[in-house]
C-alpha cells in the first residue's frame, strides 16, 4: 500500500539522502544532454558553412565525416534539400537516393528556425533508432543522427533509477533503462505538474504501490526537459498519488 500523505517516515535520513541524490542526478542528466546539444549545434553550423562554400560533393562528405567524429553521441550528419531529397550523408558516399519529405522532423524544420530535438525515428537504411537533432539553415535542413542514450545520464551505479529526456510537450525522447509500460505512464500523469513549473521542480509520488522521487530540469537553450526518477522506501511521505 502507498503511504498516506501524513504518514510518518520511519527512515527520514535515508529518504532525504535519496531525494538529494535524485536532484544531483537530474543536474547530471541535464549536463549530459546539453554537452551533446551544444556540440551538435556547432557541428551543424560548421556543416552549413562547408556545404555553402565547397563545390565538390566528395569533399563535402569528407568534411562532414570529420566533423561528426568530434561530436559525442552523433552517428552522422545528413543534409536534406528543400524538396526533401537527401543531398549529403557523412556516413555514406554517394548518399542513398532517398526523399525524406514525409519525415515529421523535416516538416517541423520548415517552420522552426532554431535547433530542435525531434521524436525518435527508425533510420530508413540503417534500421536503427535515432533522435533527430535538426536545424534549418537557408533552404537546407541539417540533421544530426543522434544516439538516444547520449542525451541522458545512464546512472549505471543505481539499480532503481531512471533517466529521461522529454520534449517540451512531454513526449519522451530518450529513456534509460528502457521501460515500456509503467514509467512512461508515470511521466504522463505528471506532465501537467512538469509543464507548469518554470525551470525545475521535484515531487515524491505514489504510483502502483511504490514511491518515487521525481526531479526535472528544463534546458533554457534547447527546450529539453531532463528528468531523473528514483525509487524510495515505501515509508516515504508522498506529495501526490497519481494512481
What features would you describe in this structure?
The chain is of the alpha+beta class and 243 residues long. Helices cover 31% and strands 28% of the residues. The chain has five helices and twelve strands. Strands 1, 2, 3, 4, 5 and 6 form a six-stranded antiparallel beta sheet that branches. Strands 8-7-11-10-9-12 form a six-stranded mixed beta sheet. The longest helix has 42 residues, at 12-53. Residues 1-11 have low confidence and may be disordered.
Brief characterization of the structure:
The chain is of the alpha+beta class.
- Large-scale geometry: elongated
The largest sheet, given as strand count, sense and whether it forms a barrel, is: 6 strands, antiparallel
Helix fraction bin: 25-40%
Given as residue ranges, the uncertain stretches (5+ residues, pLDDT < 50) are 1-11
**Based on helices, strands and strand pairing, what is the structural class?**
alpha+beta
Distance between the termini: 12 Å
Over the alpha carbons, how many angstroms does the gyration radius reach?
Answer: 20 Å
Give the number of helices: 5
Element string (H = helix, E = strand): HHEEHEEEEEEHHEEEE
Proportion of β residues?
A: 25-35%
Average of pLDDT:
91
**Beta strand count:** 12
Entry keywords:
243 residues, six-stranded antiparallel beta sheet, six-stranded mixed beta sheet, 5 helices
Amino acid at each position: 500500500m502507498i503511504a498516506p500523505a501524513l504518514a510518518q517516515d520511519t527512515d527520514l535520513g535515508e529518504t532525504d539522502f535519496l531525494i538529494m541524490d535524485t536532484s544531483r542526478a537530474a543536474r547530471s542528466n541535464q549536463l549530459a544532454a546539453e554537452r551533446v546539444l551544444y556540440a551538435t549545434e556547432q557541428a551543424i553550423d560548421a556543416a552549413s558553412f562547408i556545404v555553402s562554400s565547397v563545390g565538390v560533393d566528395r569533399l563535402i562528405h569528407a568534411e562532414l565525416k570529420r566533423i561528426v567524429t568530434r561530436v559525442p553521441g552523433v552517428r552522422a550528419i545528413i543534409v536534406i534539400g528543400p524538396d526533401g531529397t537527401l543531398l549529403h550523408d557523412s556516413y555514406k558516399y554517394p548518399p542513398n537516393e532517398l526523399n525524406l519529405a514525409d519525415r515529421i522532423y523535416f516538416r517541423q524544420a520548415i517552420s522552426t528556425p532554431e535547433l530542435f530535438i525531434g521524436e525518435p525515428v527508425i533510420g530508413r537504411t540503417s534500421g536503427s533508432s535515432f533522435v533527430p537533432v535538426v536545424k534549418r539553415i537557408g533552404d537546407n535542413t541539417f540533421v544530426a543522427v543522434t544516439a538516444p542514450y547520449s542525451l541522458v545520464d545512464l546512472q549505471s551505479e543505481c539499480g532503481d533509477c531512471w533517466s529521461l529526456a522529454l520534449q517540451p510537450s512531454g513526449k519522451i525522447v530518450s529513456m534509460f533503462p528502457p521501460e515500456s509500460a509503467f514509467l512512461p505512464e508515470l511521466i504522463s500523469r505528471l506532465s501537467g505538474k512538469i509543464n507548469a513549473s518554470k525551470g525545475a521542480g521535484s515531487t515524491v509520488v505514489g504510483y502502483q504501490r511504490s514511491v518515487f522521487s521525481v526531479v526535472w530540469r528544463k534546458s533554457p537553450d534547447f527546450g529539453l526537459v531532463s528528468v531523473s526518477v528514483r525509487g524510495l522506501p515505501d515509508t516515504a511521505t508522498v506529495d501526490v498519488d497519481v494512481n
